[in-house]
From TrEMBL:
This is Transketolase. It comes from Roseburia intestinalis L1-82. It is an enzyme of class 2 (transferase). Keywords: Metal-binding, Thiamine pyrophosphate, Transferase. Its cofactor is thiamine diphosphate. Its EC number is 2.2.1.1. Gene3D superfamilies: 3.40.50.970. The keyword Oxidoreductase does not apply. InterPro entries: THDP-binding, Transketolase_CS, Transketolase_N. Residues 13-270 form the Transketolase N-terminal domain.
Amino acid sequence: MTITELKQTAVEVRKGIVTATHAAKSGHPGGSLSATEIFTYLYFEEMNIDPKNPKMEDRDRFVLSKGHTAPGLYSALANRGYFPVKDLETLRHTGSYLQGHPDMKHIPGVDMSSGSLGQGISCAVGMALAGKMDHKDYRVYTLLGDGEIEEGQVWEASMFAGHRKLDNLVVIVDNNNMQIDGTLDEVCSPDPIDKKFEAFNFHVIHVADGNDFAQLAEAFKEARETKGMPTAIIAHTLKGKGVSYMEGQVGWHGKAPNDEEYAIAMEELGKAGEALCQK
């Protein structure tokens, strides 16, 4: 895909996030929107996957360690063709397969159930180790929140990954500087994030603007070229990116838009999509 096509796809992914959380009257739009470019780049450019064969043995794996941002993952999966985009409107409804957190037993394309913060990276490390032991070429990607990495289990998993030199593992930190109770500095800052990963023998890549596809492309290319150690990509993003009244607002971590807010968001995203089509 071209950069413009990726941007257009990201707009559609954002529409899905807003639509799903509005329909559910609950959910986590803020962190889903900040990670939209990451989801989009992974599923439309980076990973070796096949929506028609979700369990393909040699596929690349993805674990959403910050499982509460499921609306972002679901929207990316739906737009990639794993299931109908229309189904996003059933998010968190009784009887829907699109639960509040990813469920590998019922959702096509979900490689690991997640939700309990800190645990997803451990699963990803296990997958990467299995790939090495089985002499497979697949790669494993996991997305963590910067608030999530306050969990001690994250660093236990990182210690193991670095020790085992799992260069088929890419840990991505969505560094939007906000968590449910406030900014990182206000709650429990995990900084310096880069030095912590380096201490556990990771190759660290900073992405100054994690909502910029060109910068993400360079980062994932560098990760692929890194041998002998796992990679941590620290992506500096904007909470609520793409919806004006959500941007940089911690209150939108776990709150759904009402009817009026939904209309405003969809109008803004519609205009953003139209502008891209004219390029």
